[in-house]
Write a structure and sequence with these properties.
Strand content: under 5%
Strand order of the largest sheet: 1-4
Low-confidence stretches: 1-21, 23-36, 546-551, 583-615
Shape: globular
Radius of gyration: 24 Å
Distance between the termini: 27 Å
Structural class: mainly alpha
Helix content: 55-70%
Length: about 625
């Protein structure tokens, strides 16, 4: 899951207009567009092929935009895996999640939903993972919390963190099979009938709220630095987002000239972290920050992990089972299932938002089923590779689509390849582990707050003037905070006599998103209320809209490499939920690119697009 979802993308970027941005059939009907519509019109739609250099430049931007969410997950997991003082292994985890995110992105764009949407780590699996690692049997030994006692190369320490990682891997792999089943069987439509905004809102909000301890612990290492980081991110993302910055640009027509881009709107988190990181470095070399470990503010220094970059290998190929053979526990699997269900429901909303902003028709059911199934396959791969997390659709790149006016999926293909390349170079992951913990804490303060607010934003579909809905949401939220907090403080309270059942209840009842989501689901489906009052009508209109089997839809969502044309002669295809129905498609005609993309004739010089990623 990405921190910001559909509503955020539309709110934060003033680029949405009614209808699609550009028609897939270029028949001259757009000649009467108003000046404002022409300004908002996409330069490249989902099936277009921009120049190769533009694909690379914009692909880099998409990677940078998603960095905040991708990097945050291994840094948080390292606390539960007893890796706080093993920066080299943290770098390996970051490299692995880069690599797997790139592979899953290519799978999704090529065989999944086929929209320009990036894949990356998900916060919905983070909460149940941390709940699982907080169980008494997985609690980190006291000596692993002391940096002076940790020998990162000792077999004892390696077994401590790898045993926890293997248990997490097995749970994620088994839980992801459920998502694969739901996606490729078409059951996602059945789930959407019973899960509405009053279930999703507390579930997502509690993801952010349950991580307050991690944010506070990191930020508390130096509140001055963390406050500065938070202030910079807020300054860039909210106050300066509409202020353009001039950058030099070159084109064949205008030669060398300056163009204005909204750099603060594109990369606020990355700019905030980088600037704070630089200030910490200046404070370190000038001895402003204390040099003694016992002094407050010592962890804000940038030279604490300097040897990690030297120790990290230049090239490291992540492979399945690199931490050993995964193990499976019932408690872990059930906890992961709660996160998987939340991720699936949110991804459906991401698909519709991304389709609208990339000039594509609304995704048909077979494409949504295929997208959810491929996401489940991505979680399976992430578990096998050992990221400690799964994958989901990222919607941060939706903002980049609106800024650059490039909705081509070839750009995301380039981004996926770049993520794979970064995952292969070990020193790139090691660099990110040197970010001071107060800087990370400042980023968490903003990121987790946005996640919580993104969950609450789902209530816009429900009637919040209804006392029924107010009760359901309030009770679900409060229970999701009270019950896990009490279980954490009284871990021995659950004693049924069956060890497996105790572990299952321990994980579920300490996972805030499960507790809140369960009460929201149960109460919303049992307390009498109209569908309009519950928000089901508006919710289904947004998330269950199905496009007709048109030429435009088949151009975008049919399978690549001529697979759809090969299957079109078989009648059994109509009974397979993830395959497109038989329909004429330009994709089935010879001469169409293997990735089902085409280059538009007469496209203008793309220098005006390059200027938006000149930095």
């Amino acid at each position: 899951m990405a921190p910001e979802k559909e509503s955020n993308g539309l709110e934060n970027y003033a680029f949405a207009i009614d209808g699609r941005f550009c028609d897939l059939e270029k028949d001259g009907e757009g000649s009467d567009l108003s000046e404002e519509d022409d300004k908002n019109k996409l330069a490249y739609c989902v099936t277009d092929i921009p120049p190769w250099y533009l694909c690379i430049i914009l692909g880099i931007q998409h990677c940078l935009t998603a960095f905040g969410g991708i990097i945050a997950i291994p840094l948080i997991l390292s606390q539960g895996l007893c890796l706080q003082h093993d920066s080299l292994t943290q770098g390996h985890l970051i490299s692995t999640i880069f690599f797997v995110s790139g592979v899953c992105t290519l799978l999704q764009v090529t065989f999944g939903i086929r929209l320009p949407i990036l894949q990356g780590g998900t916060f919905t699996l983070l909460a149940p993972s941390m709940a699982m690692l907080s169980m008494p049997e997985w609690t980190c030994p006291a000596w692993t919390q002391n940096a002076s006692l940790v020998n990162t190369t000792s077999p004892e320490y390696v077994e401590v963190w790898q045993s926890r990682m293997r248990a997490l891997q097995g749970s994620i792999m088994v839980g992801s099979l459920f998502q694969v089943l739901v996606g490729f069987s078409g059951l996602i439509g059945l789930f959407m009938r019973f899960i509405g905004p009053l279930t999703i809102a507390p579930t997502i909000s509690l993801i952010g709220l349950s991580l307050y301890d991690s944010a506070g612990m990191n930020a508390g290492n130096h509140w001055g630095i963390s406050t500065m980081t938070t202030a910079l991110i807020i300054l860039f993302s909210q106050y300066l987002r509409h202020i353009p910055v001039p950058f030099p640009t070159y084109s064949k027509t205008k030669k060398l000239h300056t163009s204005k881009i909204y750099i603060f709107q594109i990369l606020p988190v990355l700019l905030g972290i980088t600037l704070s990181w630089l200030i910490c470095y200046i404070f370190t070399i000038s001895d402003v920050l204390p040099s003694q470990p016992e002094q407050y503010g010592y962890l804000a220094r940038t030279d604490l992990k300097g040897d990690v970059i030297v120790q990290a290998p230049w090239f490291r190929f992540p492979y399945p089972g690199q931490w050993g053979l995964p193990t499976v526990s019932l408690a872990g699997v059930v906890g992961i299932l709660a996160g998987v269900i939340s991720s699936m429901i949110e991804s459906v909303g991401d698909y519709h938002a991304c389709a609208r902003l990339s000039g594509a028709p609304p995704p048909p059911k077979h494409a949504i089923n295929r997208g959810i199934g491929i996401e489940g396959l991505g979680c399976l791969l992430a578990g096998a590779w050992g990221t400690g997390n799964g994958t989901t659709s990222y919607s941060e790149n939706v903002g980049a689509l609106g800024i650059t006016k490039v909705g081509s999926r070839m750009v995301i293909v380039a981004g996926g390849v770049l993520l794979i390349i970064m995952g292969l170079f070990g020193k790139i992951g090691a660099i990110f582990t040197t970010i001071p913990t107060p800087v990370v804490g400042g980023m968490f303060l903003v990121m987790f707050g946005v996640i919580s607010a993104a969950g609450v934003s789902n209530l816009q579909y429900a009637d919040m003037n209804s006392s029924r809905n107010i009760f359901i949401f309030g009770f679900s939220m409060f229970s999701g905070l009270v019950i896990p907090n009490w279980i954490f403080k009284n871990p021995d309270a659950i004693a049924t006599g069956v060890v497996e059942l105790d572990q299952l209840l321990q994980v579920l009842l300490t996972t805030s998103m499960f507790v809140g989501g369960f009460f929201g689901f149960f109460l919303d489906n049992t307390i009498p209320g109209t569908k309009r009052e519950r928000g089901i009508i508006a919710w289904n209109k947004i998330h269950l809209d199905d496009s007709s089997n048109t030429l435009e839809s088949s151009e975008v969502y049919n399978l690549p490499f001529g697979i759809s044309s090969c299957l079109s002669s078989y009648t059994w295809v109509r009974y397979v939920p993830f395959l497109p129905l038989n329909a004429p498609s330009s994709q089935d005609k010879p001469g169409v690119d293997s990735l089902d993309t085409r280059k538009q004739p007469g496209k203008p010089e793309p220098s005006h697009i390059i200027r938006s990623v000149a930095l």
